[in-house]
Specification:
This protein is of the alpha/beta class and 334 residues long. The chain has 10 helices and 9 strands. It has helices at 17-28, 40-51, 67-81, 104-131, 154-175, 194-197, 215-227, 242-247, 249-265, 294-333; strands at 8-12, 32-37, 56-61, 86-89, 95-96, 135-141, 179-187, 199-200, 232-235. It has a 7-stranded parallel β-sheet with strand order 3-2-1-4-6-7-9, with helices on both faces. The chain has a two-stranded parallel ribbon with strand order 5-8. Strand 6 (135-141), helix 5 and strand 7 (179-187) form a beta-alpha-beta unit. Helix 1 packs parallel to helix 2 (40-51), helix 3 packs parallel to helix 4 (104-131) and helix 4 (104-131) packs parallel to helix 5 (154-175). It is globular, with a radius of gyration of 23 Å.
Length: 334
């Protein structure tokens, strides 16, 4: 795709966070943006904000766990703008706590939202792509935990790892008989209002693990995929953890469980147990960022600054000692 102007882009989970940032990014490119989410009022406000950025928008209240509603979303997008060029499966949430203490109905609902919602989206979009001679781009938003398992978020990991596998398999399958591209996006912790929507069974307020990724950065990468599709992109420095996990999965997994347990259950302010946005929508604004990680980012910057100063000081001392050693060696030779 050479340009996104007048391209039709469908985005689920578009009323806040990554979805809203992505809708805004496509609107700036002059695309026709179809926003889908459960919260009608927030969705309409988000659509108005995107319209002001330069694109044409259309809001379709949709629960992605209902395949009939997802099919209606696809039909509405195609009938309004004439076609669908890009479909982004972004809707989803996370869930934290001890596996045995989380109700099974909550875990099943999470899988339905994160994995089946994306499957329903792909199934609804493909007939419209095939109507366009087998062309189109699907972007599935997974997570770093689709690559690196996260203790205390077992079902969330299962949903995102399942989405990663589904994305890879569907990409290979469609490449055999079409030009449809299927892309995976794997963000690390992102500064979105996810702390409001996430299911939390830890007894403590949810906090991110820095460095936290700005949602606008993820949105920019998604726009890039629409223009130049590729198999996958990884966003965030925490993806470096995939290397030690691949080399020594058991020790790294035990360490992650130990550190994660301390972080989730024994630090941070107390908080009530909540299903988040699993079954019902959560009152909130149409916001891209959630204020996640502000103090953590300041702490990381301080740590990096101190570490850099110490490293610089150590380098100066080391160079000085090397010069002294060279002078002593010359003196001894002379």
């Amino acid at each position: 795709m050479e340009s996104l102007r007048d391209a039709t882009v469908v985005i689920t989970g578009a009323s806040s966070g990554i979805g809203l940032a992505t809708a805004q990014a496509f609107s700036r490119c002059g695309a026709n943006v179809v926003l889908a989410a459960r919260r009608r009022q927030l969705l309409e406000q988000a659509a108005q904000d995107c319209e002001a950025l330069g694109g044409r928008t259309f809001a379709v209240p949709t629960d992605v766990t209902d395949p009939a509603q997802v099919r209606e979303l696809a039909s509405a997008a195609a009938s309004t703008f004439g076609r669908i060029d890009v479909w982004i499966n972004n809707a989803g949430t996370s869930m934290w706590g001890r596996f045995e203490e989380i109700p099974l109905e909550s875990q099943a609902r999470l899988i339905e939202l994160n994995l089946l919602g994306a499957i329903y989206g792909c199934h609804a979009a493909l007939p419209h792509f095939f109507d366009r001679e087998g062309r189109g781009v699907i972007v599935n938003v997974s997570s770093i935990f689709g690559r690196v398992p996260m203790p205390w978020a077992a079902s969330y990991t299962a949903s995102k790892a399942g989405l990663a596998g589904f994305t890879e398999a569907l990409r290979a399958e469609l490449s055999s008989h079409s030009e449809i591209e299927v892309c995976g996006v794997y963000p690390a912790y992102v500064d979105t209002p996810t702390y409001l929507n996430s299911a939390n069974y830890t007894g403590r307020a949810l906090r991110p693990v820095p460095p936290v990724v700005p949602p606008e950065r993820v949105a920019e990468r998604i726009v890039g995929l629409a223009l130049r599709p590729r198999r996958s992109i990884r966003v965030g420095a925490l993806h470096a953890s995939a290397v030690p996990y691949a080399l020594t999965p058991d020790p790294v997994g035990r360490l992650a469980a130990r550190l994660g347990g301390r972080f989730l259950f024994r630090s941070g302010p107390p908080a009530d147990t909540t299903d988040g946005g699993l079954f019902e929508t959560v009152p909130a604004g149409a916001e891209v960022r959630g204020g996640w990680g502000l103090e953590e980012r300041r702490r990381v910057r301080r740590t990096v600054a101190v570490g850099g100063a110490l490293a610089a000081g150590a380098s100066v001392v080391l160079l000085s000692r090397i010069r002294q050693a060279k002078r002593l060696a010359r003196a001894l030779r002379g």
